Amino acid sequence: MKAPASWIREYVDLPAGVTTEELAARLTALGLKLEAIVSPGDRITGPLVVGKVLTKEPEPQKNGKTINWCTVDVGAANGTGEPQGIVCGAHNFAPGDLVVVVLPGGVLPGDFAISARKTYGHVSAGMICSARELGLGEDHDGIIVLPEGAGEPGESAFPLLGLDDDVIEFEINPDRAYALSLRGIAREAALAYDAPYRDPADRALPEPNATGHPVRIDDPVGCPVFVARKVTGFDPTAASPDWMVRRLTQAGMRPISLAVDVTNYVMLEIGRPIHGYDADRVRGPIGVRRAREGERVTTLDGAERILSIEDLVVTDDSGIIGLGGVMGGETTEMSETTTSILVEAAHWDAVSMFRTGKRHKITSEAGKRNERGVDPVVTQAAADRVVELLTTFGGGTADPGVTVVGLPPEQPRITISYDLPARVTGMPIDAATTVAHLEAVGCVLEKGDTTLTATTPPWRPDLTDPFDLVEEVARVVGYDRVPSVLPREAAGRGLTREQRLRRRVGRTLAGAGCAEVISFPFVGDATFDALGLAADDVRRATVRLANPLSSEEPSYTTTLLPGLLKAVARNLGRGAPGVALFETGTVAFPADRGPAPIYGVDWRPSDDELAKLFEAIPDQPLHLAVVLAGERERAGWWGEGRDAGWADAVGLVRRLGAELGVGVDVAAARRMPWHPGRCAEVRVAGPETGVVLGHAGELHPKVCQAFGIPARSAALEIDLDALMRHARDVVPGPDFSTYPVAKEDVALVVDAKVRSVAVETALREGAGDLLESVRLFDVYTGEQLGEGKKSLAFALRFRADDRTLTEEETAAARDAAVALAAERTGAVQR
Amino acid sequence: MSGPNTDYDPVEVTPLKAEEVEAARDAALAAIAAAADLAELKQVRIDHTGDRSPLALANREIGALPPQARKEAGQRIGRARGAVNKALADRQAVLEVEHEERMLVEETVDVTVPTDRVPTGARHPLTTGAELIADIFVAMGWEVAEGPVIEAEWLNFDALNLGPDHPARTMQDTFWTDPGDDHLVLRTHTSPVQARTMLQRTPPIYVICPGRVFRTDEYDATHSPVFHQVEGLAIDEGITMAHLKGTLDHFAAQMFGEGINTRFRPSYFPFTEPSAEVDLVCFVCRGAGELDGSSCRTCRGEGWIEWGGCGVVNPRVLAACGVDAERYTGFAFGMGIDRTLMFRHGIEDLRELFEGDVRFTTAFGTEL
Questions:
Q1: Is B268's CB within 8 Å of A633's CB?
Q2: Which residue in A88, A378, A628, A802 has the fewest CB atoms around it within 10 Å?
Q3: Residues A509-523: pLDDT tens digits?
Q4: B135-177 tens-digit pLDDT
Q5: Which of A30, A483, A604 sits opposite B266 (nearest CB)?
Q6: Any idea which architecture B125-362 has in CATH?
């Protein structure tokens, strides 16, 4: 809402010396948030004066343009009193016209300094200005021609153009619809300064009578009050007065014609949207009712609207002539030939206005006010003001008929105890202050011993609850007076187990050289295609959005890999030699357990109802994914670098398992987007074997290609919730032997297809209790071994709890280990 | 150890002469003194104290002497050998020190060469920022509550006094799931976590709810369809706006430094009444609005930074969530984590948070 300061001051006597900035700050403190103060004159330095065109000589130029060589009387403003010679490119003026002249030395918006300069064979000493050059609008059709008698040559043009009038732009919250009018803003200014206020809606009104245009309301809930007035003999060519045009422009509205401008002006002034009909096109009595399903009306904007039974419509004998309170119809629209105007000022049900505006996607200044709530009492005053302005400036006659149908709804009454504001705000607000401030905002009070009952003012439909009154008192007292007190210390339980574990996971990965990424969770079929997912892959079953940002990515993701792969490609594209990225985030799988219920809000749903609600929400497990691409270890003076590979991904899962105390088993698996021969399925080890955590390994070459990242890039994705569920809570203190260790290395030749884990398991079991650890330290293939064979070298470490092992004991354990490996895997010791 | 020698060689008896013993001693001492390094000294030790050295040979001869001569010869040779051994030990110590010093010099490396064999990792500042905030509140005895991002419409809107016709529902352009009559949304704020907490716990409640939220905003330098919020909720007996102010002042000081506090401006949120916007004293210019004579860039000369919204929990919300509004009052607040980090760290473009450029992330390390 843009409010010219001069317009605000018209209704409130502010103390002397209050600047626009101070006023805006005080209003902000009351809840009208300052967006900006626009002072058009601030960007102009004089001399900017009224000039009277004396002569105008058109001079065609070689470039095809015609310029006008003018002499302009600028009074004594140029210091000489002589006519000023000025070249002007515009043609919309004639000798004798009053224009706006900036003289040499002046500066226009955009730091445009004016000087006398030679152009088109003349010395042009200044400039005749257009509205755009002065920053007053986009109108560049020509220069500004002032109305006759607007001022004397040489007089400052600042006040004439409103350049000395600041415009305060406020952000108006939805609960303060009354501030979408100068009436409301000025009322707040009066409240801020405890200053005298003149209500522009407070005017002497003609008595309603039966001679006005007949109106029938069939839906008094949707339209409690309908006022109709008529102006006849209106001159459709009459221009809006300059002050009205200026104020409308300052308020951000485009001047159109006197009849339209007047309705807009009164809406800004009083806050009540007005609709004007071409009275000659209205057939018979006006009616107000709900539409029938499927009825149609063409609105002012030329759109044909198919109506619903919830829409409120205005009718005449021809049918529907408007969407009540939202937009008028085409058939009764005022035009440039309209001489008879039917003025409608009606009060409409806000919820209906909101729904109709939303259903038909209509946003308008009128709709914005009607759906937030307008003062129902001022319908007659607004209509009367419109009639006054139309007859004053349009030469018409006010029809004596005054139709007023219906009554404004009763205002709610709210009872609070006197100390409620103090109890809620923590400010020392006594009963007298509460009473004074509620009365100041317009409440009418009945004062009891311990409670008061407030009848709220009609322009405040937002006041419905006791706490609303608390806010009114508090904002007048001043939010800056709220003390700063810490609440009592709660006996908190600290972070939850999962919250602590998540931090550990993040630190572990960062410690392993991975950088965390947060990406958008939106995907589409193309993403899944790029990952090579089969048509029936469960990851393609997504929670879809009804209104996605992009139709290409309409789903909430089921995997974190796409976001990471894109970020990897971005980093490599920006020149990173290698990158390791991780992300933790929720993915979603559809629940398909029916719609989520909508309950009432007056009391808590039952536990069963809540369970049903929670049940309908899609499963959203927390996932962790890592992608490693390019250089994993750098080359340097220490030697060669090393690119990331499948083992880095598998290694990271093991490292996380170790960090969280979860044993993990790894088995070969085939799953996109991984390389079918280099993909590991990761499971929880131990009694709960079978819980699949996720997968790790090298990415499929096609996937690398699709995402534009190097071949052999590696990735892992696991269900972090599952991993954390298995995390060890209390680690038992370890018990270990301090006797010497005995080491034995064995090299075993096996078939190339044999998994090392099988050999290792056999060794472990065969070696018995003396075995402390077994570790594969070398894999060798070569001609000596023969085709299809490989040699696995294991380091075995033996230790007893109670003695130093003898060579014989160690050798026996080693031989037993090898024997079991031979039996199970066909291993032959080299 | 040589025992009594009964098979001595008369030719070798000469070293037992006093002058020869002294000559052998002097030769040894001279050689020791002349040894330039530990290797040379080792050879000197062999030559002058080894089994074939004159003094060793002489010593071996002592047993062959007549008993009356043994004592004197023994003493003479013992003194000579003692002198030589002491000289050897002394020289050994000196040469060892010299050797070590030389070795340390020779082993000097260029410590300025790069050592970045394995790249540095980092956690995302949105993660560590949320943790920093969590730690501030946990230190006050609060807890951290979380909830799903795909949320029931009722929890995201209705329970928070945002009825189907509430104008505020259009203020928050919402992602709805398909079909719309599933009544599910991508949560537009973390407030449904507050609702869940009230529905599932009994007061006193002191929780913060950090997390990812969604609005159908265009993606630009200051807007994102995906962003992060932290909200706070306190429900207890006797809670007032003053407690809200105290909590936010404490939060601001912890996050931005001592002396940085907040101010309230009246505002409107359906879930709170009274409602306020929270501004933060600009921690760069400390409220002056200017810095070194020019307008402060962080607060654009305002002296204050818009931080978030807050208020006293609307009793209608308490009713829908089953909190006894006669007994308890509460306050709630919320702010953007992304935005907070942007001005705390001078991040110009919001999109940097979501691009995943490692140069951005690693700049913040693993903790904020």
A1: no
A2: A802
A3: 999 999 999 999 999
A4: 999 999 999 999 999 999 999 999 999 988 776 676 558 999 9
A5: A30
A6: 2-Layer Sandwich (3.30)
